[in-house]
Write the structure tokens for this entry.
Amino acid sequence: MNRPERKRELEEVLAADDPAALGTLHLTEDRTLDSGERLITLNMGPQHPSTHGVLRVILKLDGELITECDPVIGYLHRGTEKLGEAHRYAQVIPWTDRTDYVAAPLNNLGYILAVEKLCGVEAPERAQYWRVIMAELSRIASHLVWLGTHALDIGALSMSLYCFREREIILDIFEAFCGARLTTNMMEIGGFSRPIPDGLVEQIHNFLRIFPERQQEYADLLSANPIWMARTKGVGVISPEAAVSYSLTGACLRGSGINFDVRKAQPYLIYDRLDFEVPLGQIGDTYDRYLVRMEEMRQTLKIIQQCLDTIEKDDSPLMAYESAYVIPPHKGTMTTAEDMQRHFVWVIKGFSPPVGEAYAAVEHAKGENGYYFVSDGSPIPYRFRIRSPDFVNLAVLPHIAQGAMLADVVALIGTIDIVLGSVDR
Amino acid sequence: MPAADQPIWLTFIVAFIVMNVLLIGMAYMTYFERKVMAAMQDRMGPTRTGPKGLLQPIADGIKLLGKEDLIPAAADKVIFYFAPLVIFVTAIVSVAVIPFGGTIELFGREINLFITDLNVGALYVLAFSSIGVYGIILGAYASANRYSLLGGLRAAAQVVSYEIILGLSLVGVFMLAGSLSLRDILAAQQTQLEFGPLTISNWFILSQPIAFGIFMIAAVAETNRAPFDLPEAETELVSGFHTEYSAFRFSFYFLGEYISMIVISLFASTLFLGGTSGPGSTAYWGLGLLWLLLKTVMFLFFYVWLRTTLPRFRYDQLMGIAWKVLLPATLLNILITAFIRLVGNGQI
């Protein structure tokens, strides 16, 4: 039953003005099969401990077997795209934080890349390296949240605490870098307007030193655990054909053995200069996707190490101040009237990009995260659209839940790796 | 072992003490679990209530007493009221047959350190743990909630399957001890085996290691604990059979679960680890109690350890393990034990 049908049914029942009729709604209606067996309908969510927020899944169950799975989204819809069409370009960056809130820098990055493409701005090389470092750190943070909650859903209670312990180190790095931990609003059009804080490089080095050992601990707890394997191997198999036809991206696609990573396919920033591998799965089951994400974390550490090696001693500028689309320097705003006015006007009036359209995509922790603008030359986007990876990936849930067991649903939601803020936007 | 012929009121006093110790033990089992889990998960556990959070169980109990007792409109009220009691009572009466020692002299009287010496003691424990599942099924059914219903169905299938394995795994022990009375089983483990210079007690864990392993797995499943906690599997079924329960009615389920864990641990210590026996336990009955406590805490630690480490099984995998792995293994164990016993008696 699709949403309009469900809505019509609700309206009919409400129009009948009969409290007892509420009980006959689709949700509570049980169906009788030809064989005389009855199916029960289970309404999982939107308030449920393991639907990762406010996802609602309506399940038709034959005993513990799922015969039908119908995800309902929209409970966290905040109209981010519409908000983007009502704000100036630089004011939308904080809204992107709140789409996929476990990997905010990656959202920021996709957004500012689209704006920079539209305006033709290019950030200085050093800023590009720092963007990669922050983006990759937030990829690890996102994968840690995924691993912790995914394992918790399957019953491995301690994993979530271990993963959040390590994520804390990353959040501390974010805090040192930009002052915020979760909704970072970190990236700026044209680079970074503030200097890199002292001691940040040591902090990142410290993380790079600690993390491989800790990640090995997770792998020891899960990778060869017979229960973990029983719960994930052969569960939620996505064939390469299905993965492509559902336009999956990220680990869901690569788990099925298809080599597509935006960082390699359409390199942005300085990714073409970095040496890293794209891990691929073979069967496309939950276990493969687990291995792919675990390996991605290791590759990410490699990327961060390379970036640090390149720019550690670099002292070149971080911001492309020569461009008119970039915020004027903070320096002087407190002392010189002209500087202050220029800064004020840029912030209040915004800037007007050329007429045209632009789409930029980044390899988000969850897949291809794209931002699309149509500019009519005014300081406010004419059209703003987000391609959020988990929204697209979630569409595969009914396909893989078919014939699975009730307990697998939480494993499947976990393996798709959704964040409802990003799904509903 | 002869038991002292003590007046009934003395038995009542012993029973009263045992029951209260058990309830306090249960309360502190939750504290123990939280602290051990916290240590394993790199966090603090309760620290705020009393010194080192020691008053936390009491605060929890008072909080639960003060909560509103909600009953769903569609619930079957009589059964809904009654079901938590079933699981609580069946859990707590099982302790009646556990021997905490022999007969002692205290205040000029002979006192038995056990409530009763039933000649089918082991069967009695198993029987009551079977009845306990009615508390889950009835509560789940009466809640009129689909998560509860699924939890109840899981519990029924799980407990029935593991009940069989739990019982069969003990048959080897019964054959060796020649009795179903827990006191006789305990006495059978007091004999000393000599291996050259080493003298060790003939604990049944040595002669029945397979049975012990299977018993431990089945006991975890029987008490619905991780990784077999499918009836309440909070990530799938919200809270399973007790989703709709609140306040003290919920805490009866909670009490029942923890008491059955303690009882099963006492039971396992008695059957396989020589119960109260240990260095000095024949001379001082207090040491015997201490040994029993140590062994029980060891089992409880094992429970908590499993819970922090392992993911949860899926329903079909759980049944598969019971019927395809554990059941043949127990039957084989019985066969081997019977054969060895016949050879030992010179009957073959």
